[in-house]
Write a structure and sequence with these properties.
Distance between the termini: 99 Å
Low-confidence stretches: 112-122, 125-130, 133-146, 154-170
Order of helices and strands: HH
Mean pLDDT: 74
Strand content: under 5%
Number of helices: 2
Structural class: mainly alpha
Radius of gyration: 45 Å
Length: 170
């Protein structure tokens, strides 16, 4: 801690012998040693408490980070489940539309219906919510029987396929 050499210690000893005298010098050395020991112990205790507190803060921070990561994983799992259920619902809806269009008598080459359907082939949805249906080299048409106008639906992505647009049956 301090750079005290042998010469400096010898000088301090001689000065203290002259100032205190030979009778009081052993008691003064003993008292100084006790005070230095107490000071060292206090310093070591304070140092240990600070290290302990810093370690506790790190542990609290680590636990908080682990909690955040756990919540993130739960959110990610819930989001993946939602995405999968939406994909399943979309696929089921697409299959239902294909089945309804086939049962309504639409030909697979874009021709008209063999007979006019009597019931609504879509679930109760607003006309704006009717999704775009795409098929390669085949078209699928949906006839909406609601009174609201139905926007044109492009049903093809292939360049040589026919595009069928529908209007509401009024």
């Amino acid at each position: 801690m301090f750079d005290v050499g042998f010469g400096e210690i010898l000088l301090i000893g001689v000065v203290s012998l002259v100032v205190l005298g030979p009778e009081k010098l052993p008691g003064a050395v003993r008292t100084a040693a006790l005070m230095i020991g107490r000071l060292k112990r206090s310093f070591n205790t304070l140092k240990a408490e600070i290290e302990k507190e810093v370690g506790a803060d790190e542990i609290r921070r680590q636990l908080r980070n682990e909690d955040i990561m756990e919540k993130f994983k739960q959110t990610q799992t819930a989001l993946n489940n939602t995405i999968n259920s939406v994909k399943e619902g979309t696929e089921e809806f697409r299959k239902n539309v294909e089945l309804e269009s086939q049962s309504a008598g639409w030909s697979s080459h874009g021709g008209g219906p063999a007979e006019t359907p009597t019931s609504n082939s879509l679930p109760d949805a607003a006309p704006a919510e009717i999704p775009e249906v795409a098929a390669s080299k085949e078209t699928v048409a949906v006839i909406a029987t609601s009174d609201a106008p139905v926007p044109a639906i492009s049903t093809s992505t292939a360049p040589d396929a026919e595009t069928v647009t529908t209007k509401s049956a009024s």
